[in-house]
Prior knowledge:
By secondary structure, the protein is of the alpha+beta class. The protein has two domains: 2-190, no CATH class; 205-352, no CATH class. The protein has nine helices and 18 strands. The chain has a four-stranded antiparallel sheet. It has a four-stranded antiparallel sheet with strand order 14-15-9-18. It has a four-stranded antiparallel sheet with strand order 10-11-16-17, covered by helices on one side. A hairpin with a 6-residue loop joins strand 2 (63-64) and strand 3 (71-72). Helix 1 (29-42) packs antiparallel against helix 2 (54-62).
Amino acid sequence: MKTATFDLDIISPCFCGGAQPKKTAEIRAPSIRGQLRWWFRTLGGFKSLAPRPVSKQEAIIFGSTAGDNGRAGKLTVRVRTNQTVSGVRDSQELEYPMFSGPAYLTFPIQSREKDGHKSQYNGRGVVISGSFQLCVTWRGSLSLWHDIHALIGVFVHIGSLGYRGRRAMGGLAFNGQPPVNLPNALSHFSSPNAILIKKLDAKSSQDAINVLGSWLKSCRSHGRSGQNDLEKQGPYFRFAENDHDIGYQTPSARNASAFRPALGLPIIQRIRNATNNWDWNWNRGEKKGIGRFASPVILRPYRDEQNQWHALVIFVDAHQWPTGKEVYVNGQPRKVSLELYEAMKHDSRLGNFL
Length: 354
């Protein structure tokens, strides 16, 4: 048996709720365990266990309930909370003003206002800052101990915790010198190229959130079809115009493929006196439940070993939109193109990180 304790800092607001997420924030071991499992699958399992299927590797490490007999996992994680600042906050109370980049990242947490007063409060429990200890116990083969360190390293370096974790919230960093750097950690996995990491310059955690929010907004948020000449000059306007026109069912978009679904579903598009719901979980025209598709674009503030800040944009190609999968706009099928996703990957504003 091997054990290790990692001191971690929370570097962006962490909406890590438990049983009552709108009232209390708590850092929970099961949430961390789920994140470790997700990164393990995404990166194709450990190179040292190949060619064993990832599902079988996963059962060894995390346990399994498949079949008649369950199997306990060899990896145990526990959390010891140190000093944290927490409470209930909405986006505005975190000083993310309406229409700003950070507000774009946290729009579900924005409270609705009417006549200068909050008509609906959307605050959630949040750990605003602080640190905690992640305690890891490994009861498996000692030959995998360095792999387990690598998995923890990937999670802390580029993973996150809590609600809006893909949108720059819940970022973590090692307190002090990391036990393993990110390139070394990724080298332990069979598919390190399943992700592409780009960066924008940043001066602090808050600046990284500002930069990331503004960048994503510039890629996705645009006005109505043919509305603004300044918007038309940007490289992303045509994608937004195309998807806007699909919702309006304009003749020019009758056979056009959609772009923005590849960045995540569900999408709700409000037009005039109606609402379009973009889903993908339909069967023969009969709705079986609202389809969800998690964005393959992850935004993450990052503090490196020299205490320098970066704003990371992580493209998870392993979870990009499936080839041939259609989206449904109010029940009507549309093809989905990855052209917008690829354009974001090649955005000239993004620099290489690794």
